[in-house]
Amino acid sequence: MAKKQMSREGYEKLEQKLSYLITVRRAEVAQKLKEARSFGDLSENAEYDEAKNEQGILEAEIAELQITLENAEIVEDDNISVDEIGMGSIIEIRRVGTDKIERLQIVGTNEANFKEGKISDESPIGKSALKKRVGDTFLVEAPAGELEFEVVAISK
């Protein structure tokens, strides 16, 4: 599996989530299973089936987080360029033909949250913006058609 880049902050959030799932959620699900077993016949026990399903989903999520963390390449703030857009860059872009400027941060897929202004490096805008410099324009394929953006500023 190829290394996925992510910020130190994103890595630490995933570590905290993994720790919570292992220490708290596993115990909660184990307790549900214990209670469901006490209801008797497991072949007709909906609570037991539901707890087993929940356990399976939880273990899959834990395994996925462990793989993600094992294959993470942390991009330290000191290594973020202000000359060209890369992982961790905070960019200001303007859609050509408008005056509206958007401020976005390029992050890994696991950290993306558009409401917080964090877009994935694999999203249409993120992918198209990579390696661009201030003053460069780039095209993004969108359902509404092709959009053109200009890079106004790059920071970290």
Automatic annotation (TrEMBL):
GO terms for molecular function: DNA binding; RNA polymerase binding; translation elongation factor activity. Residues 5-74 form the Transcription elongation factor GreA/GreB N-terminal domain. Keywords: Coiled coil, DNA-binding, Elongation factor, Protein biosynthesis, Transcription, Transcription regulation. Gene3D superfamilies: Transcription elongation factor, GreA/GreB, C-terminal domain, Transcription elongation factor, GreA/GreB, N-terminal domain. PROSITE patterns: GREAB_1 (PS00829). InterPro entries: GreA/GreB_C_sf, TF_GreA/GreB_CS, Tscrpt_elong_fac_GreA, Tscrpt_elong_fac_GreA/B, Tscrpt_elong_fac_GreA/B_C, Tscrpt_elong_fac_GreA/B_fam, Tscrpt_elong_fac_GreA/B_N, Tscrpt_elong_fac_GreA/B_N_sf. It comes from the Bacteria. Pfam families: GreA_GreB, GreA_GreB_N. One of its GO terms (biological process) is regulation of DNA-templated transcription elongation. The keyword ATP-binding does not apply. Residues 82-155 form the Transcription elongation factor GreA/GreB C-terminal domain. Necessary for efficient RNA polymerase transcription elongation past template-encoded arresting sites. The arresting sites in DNA have the property of trapping a certain fraction of elongating RNA polymerases that pass through, resulting in locked ternary complexes. Cleavage of the nascent transcript by cleavage factors such as GreA or GreB allows the resumption of elongation from the new 3'terminus. GreA releases sequences of 2 to 3 nucleotides. Belongs to the GreA/GreB family. This is Transcription elongation factor GreA. It comes from Ruminococcus champanellensis (strain DSM 18848 / JCM 17042 / KCTC 15320 / 18P13). The gene is greA.
